[in-house]
Amino acid sequence: MDVLDLARWQFGITTVVHFFFVPFTISMAFLVAIMQSVWMRTKSERWLRLTKFFGKLLLINLAVGVVTGLVQEFQFGMNWSDFSRFVGDVFGAPLAMEALLAFYLESVFVGVWIFGWGRIPPKIHLTTIWVTAFGTLLSAYFILAANSFMQNPVGYEIDEAAGCAELTDIWAVLTNKVLLVTFPHTIFAAFMVGGGVVAAVAMWHLVRGARNPDDAAPGAPSDRGAFRTALRIGAVTVLIGGIGVAITGDTQGKVMTEVQPMKMASAEALYETAQPAPFSLFTVGTLDGSEALYSIEVPQLLSFLGTGSFDGQVEGINDLQAQYEELYGPGDYSPNIPVTYWTFRMMITMGGLAGLIALWQLWATRRGRVPASPWALRAAAVLPVLPLAGNAFGWIFTEMGRQPWLVFGLMRTESGISPSTSATTVFVSLAAFTVLYAGLTWLWVYLLLRHARPGLPDVTPTGGDAEPDQPDEADADKPLSFAY
Amino acid sequence: MESTTLWFLLIAVLWTGYLALEGFDFGVGLLTRRFARDDTERRVLINTIGPVWDGNEVWVITAVGATFAAFPEWYSTAWSAYYLPLLLILLALIGRGLAFEYRAKGDTDSWRRRWDLVIFVGSAVPAFVWGVILAGFVQGLPLDARHDFVGGWADLVTPYTLLGGVVTLALALLHGTHYVALKTVGDIRVRARRLAGRLAVPVGVVLAAFLAWTLLRDDTPSRLAAAGALVTVAAVAAGATAIARGREGWAFVATFAAVAGTAVTLFAALFPDVLPSTLDAANGLTTANASSSDYTLTVMTWVAVPFVPAVLIYQSWVYWMFRKRIGVQHIP
């Protein structure tokens, strides 16, 4: 493999793994903030226990999210220095804004939240988790602004003398129409992850409790009530997220058909322009434009997805290829078709299945019921994995679908690589990151399971909901309510 | 002021903030190895920085992000040239960040011992390598006409840059020791004071040697760089006096000033270059030829002017919030 392949693999691996943690953090921060708010309002211990329980899962996840995010900011310069030179004037601005406006908020206030239990006034403590949650949203916005520029460059001019893009309109970059649909799509998808985790963990505890009432921990009856509430909150979150993802995904498809028609044609492996165009649910074949062996098609659906009309015209790969050759010169302008075709379908399937499980969970817990079948445990095991995989497939689709462009229409992927870096260097770092990321993903799963398995934590009497310490108090030597 | 000069200044400020803030939490990480006598003492040390280390680390993310936005050529050239040293830093910071959060989440001794080692190595490696890189900016690198690095390891790791690494490591250790003396009670506090007293002279000597070398590299060293060097050496001496008198707060302020003085010397010696070329002066990067367009710098200035002070205010508030000293009796 040459430098280009190695650098692409490295970017792919580090980014996809980073994006396991990001949606988890975004949604869980909000869910925990909501739980803590309800506790503040109702003073019901159940909500405090839920806050602490899911708060711990949030922190296990946040730690990996933060450290893998560091790599992202560095590798543009390390592996993609010509890209950084070319777009730095435009692309650097949202990255710097992310650090200054959002990342400080998250990192500073989550520290206060972690250590603030029992040490700072409860209302301020509650505010810190909300600020953290808000910071994660803002982070997502700026990072997606940078990414959307690569999908659909706006607000720039090419400086021919310097050979690079120059920012002319920051507002255009921050209101890029791709950004405006990608942001809600990504956030709704993130909520499916957090909701899925909450619903799955709660259901696992409920099923276990229902099947073995004897080995339930002390205080189990209130655990049951609390977990039932958590299950329903999680399931509703997955459903709302799912509906939001579907609506925004539909809009995004139409925007993409407009700005990157090749990506949408590749999503269907549509070689010849069609009007109306069908959408295939499943295809057995090579997807290389020759006849497919077997395919299930829904007539006119692609037309509707792409254009909003059931008999709209959708351009095919061959026509687009001809157009691009005329515009940009000879070359292959289509992405890897099997990858785009299948990741697009996997994304939708994963999200859809998660939504169905959530719907079933609500049904199974109606009017005080608690599911106890082995199928409920199996559903709990797969529920968080589905939206996580859906998120990953979605990103692989959107990034692979942009190929061969790094910045659509402006810079090809092979031109963005660092010219001075050797294949050995990139290989060493790819190997190091792959091993490290495999290790930390394993550790992440291990710790999540380990801390999800015990029931809700005990919060009385020194569990941390006490009034804040006064520095001059007589009990100045009393242990911290939270310490690493 | 030229907007490029303003942004050079701002990036210098961000690096200073990073070295001064994460500097002491690296120092605390270094102390967890020999200084801490048992697991409880180690936990006291870790908890003195528990609420703040993550916020400290954001300073480097902002410094790097600001460099990308304001001087994309500097970011691109330097980051591809320092590829492997940066890889070491990333691996160290990843491990370290996980270690703080995960150390307490297992319950065997071997689990904790492994994470303790990660905290130590994860603090030592970046504290050293950042110094090598910053000194490397002053020293310059072999760059071709496209500003691409054309050298090898021997250009990145030289006696001067190695000394730069020793300097940031030594400063972090002294700064962290002052911080521990300031933030703890009991035996740890007493021992931290004693250790700080013993470290002051060797750290002062290493610093003085490095700063003198930095000044002597230039035929006409800038007055600002010389002033930074003087402040640094005076601050280390003042810190030693303060800690000997039991004034830990002032000792901490003194090493803060020493870090700032070192950063002033380095960045003043660098300006107006950002990364000179050792092959041909014309190939070097300066604030003028590495910078973004005026428009981008203006936009970024409008963002930085309200938000850098805002960050300083809320981050200071956090330090105030967690101002209480802790000791072994506070560890649950």
In short:
Chain B: InterPro entries: Cyt-d_oxidase_su2 (IPR003317). The complex is a heterodimer of chains A (484) and B (332). Chain A is 68% helix and 5% strand.
List keywords for this structure.
heterodimer, A: 484 residues, mainly alpha, two-stranded antiparallel sheet, 14 helices, B: mainly alpha, Formate dehydrogenase/DMSO reductase fold, globular, oxidoreductase activity, acting on diphenols and related substances as donors, oxygen as acceptor (chain B), iron (chain B), electron transport (chain B), Cytochrome d ubiquinol oxidase subunit II (chain B), cell membrane (chain B)
What is the CA-atom radius of gyration of chain A, in angstroms?
25 Å
What is the string of helix and strand elements of chain B? HHHHHHHHHHHEEH
Major β-sheet annotation of chain B: 2 strands, antiparallel
Helix content of chain B: over 70%
Estimated share of beta-strand residues of chain A = under 5%
Helix content of chain A: 55-70%
Main location (chain A): membrane
EC number (chain A): 1.10.3.-
Protein name (chain A): Cytochrome d ubiquinol oxidase subunit I
Region (Disordered) (chain A): 459-484
